[in-house]
Structures are given as C-alpha cells and as structure tokens.
Amino acid sequence: MALLDVADVTVRFGGILALNELSFVVEQGQICGLIGPNGAGKTTLFNCISRVYQPTSGSISFAGSDLLAVPAWGTARLGIARTFQNLALFPSLTVAENVMVGAHSSSRQNWLTSALRIRTRREDEEQLARAWGLLQYLGLEQHAFRPCAGLPFGTLKRVEIARALAASPRLLLLDEPASGLTHSEVGELADTIRAIRADFDLSVLLVEHHMQMVMGLSDNVVVLDFGRKIADGAPSAVRDDPAVIEAYLGSGVA
C-alpha cells in the first residue's frame, strides 16, 4: 500500500481549473519530485495534502486513511509536515524556539494545563532537547539561541526543515527548498534530503524548479502542466519525455 495515494483530484477556483483529475502515489521511503512550469498546480496540491484547500472532487489517502476527512490542524499528528515556498518562521523567536513549535502536535498539554503551568516544565525540556538534537544534526547549533531575524537565507531554509522534522513526520513536503540558495548550498541541500530520508525513515514529496537537483535526487518524478499530469516515472524517462520537453521549452512552432 502506498503511503500517499492521490486519486483523480480536481480543484477549481471559480472558472480556473487548478488541478485536473490528478493521480499518483508516493511509496514508503521514496523521494518523489513534483515538477512543472509556474502555475502548473504544484502548490495547490501541497495545500490539498496539508488540508488548506478542499478538492472539488477526487480522494487523497495517507497510510490507508482518508486524508480529506482530517482538519488542517490534524495533519501533523497524522504524520505529515511541510516547509513553505516563502519562509514561515517567527522572526522574533530564537532558532530553537522555532524548531520547538514543530513539536507542538505531540504535546500532551491542553489550554488548562498550559494556563496553570501544570507539568509543562518537563515537556518544555523534552522539546528543547529534541530541538537541540535536530539543530546539531543540521549543523545549526551555533544559531540555536539567536533570533531568526537577520540570519542568512540558506540558514533559515534549514531551520524550516528542522522545525518540520520536530513533528516526527512520516511524509515530509518540501516546497521549493532550493529557491534562493547558491549553487554550493543546493548541493548540500540535496545531500541533506538524502540523509534525512535514510536517518528519519520517512518519505519526501519535493516541489522544486532546480531540475538538476530533482533529477539527481528523486526516485520518481511527476510532471504537471496546467493542472494535468503529463508524465510520471523514473527521472531518466521523464527527462526525455516529449510532452515534458514541450511543456518546458515549447514546441518550437512559430
């Protein structure tokens, strides 16, 4: 059974068809690249999986359960975490505090125990220890107690990954993690994603415009164009697919 199963998903915004009967699967332990020109529907799909959008039709299952029946706040507890195309960190919080936010879904606290500070100290210490371990893993420990505001963009991208990992996900959604990075940082990021997949025993769904990175990193690549799937397969096959070449480069016909 696939970990993530997207079946005939259609999303309409008024007269705009953002996704058109999209179907594909992500297997356990797989890195799946999701690519396509701007406006192809990639982020729309991410927003469906993370339950920001409700599809017009179709189904999405995660580990055999109906994902569309889960509210947005329940996806992290189910085992799905994501990063964002535009950074979604809290600038005034420290790096460690931002990472601790990612562990909120596993908190045993409720509004009453938090308000009365009942049994919160031990849990705060546990979350800080987990955050510290993730920051060490990603080489960010020297920034742990600095506010995110003012840190280099590449560093902040890694902080977002640490925060997502703090939720202990089974599926990690990475939305253009290489955007704004230097060439050397892109190479380091690819190595990091490979290591994360192995060390944390998770699957990755990757939206990215950096084609060399996607083709070198992914086990499987799904290509969208105007909300419709035009290719789905191994990177070598997708790279040479005439429909993919035309979507990116045009037909060349005047």
From TrEMBL:
User: Which part of the chain is the ABC transporter domain?
Assistant: 4-251
Keyword Nucleotide-binding part of the UniProt annotation: yes
* Family matches, as PROSITE patterns: ABC_TRANSPORTER_2
Instruction: Name the InterPro entries on file.
Output: AAA+_ATPase, ABC_AA/LPS_Transport, ABC_transporter-like_ATP-bd, BCA_ABC_TP_C, P-loop_NTPase
Task: Supply the SUPFAM superfamilies for this chain.
Answer: P-loop containing nucleoside triphosphate hydrolases (SSF52540)
- Gene3D superfamilies recorded: P-loop containing nucleotide triphosphate hydrolases (3.40.50.300)
UniProt keywords, alphabetically:
ATP-binding, Nucleotide-binding, Transport
Q: Which PANTHER family match?
A: ABC TRANSPORTER ATP-BINDING PROTEIN, CONSERVED COMPONENT OF ABC TRANSPORTER FOR NATURAL AMINO ACIDS-RELATED
Name of protein: ABC transporter ATP-binding protein
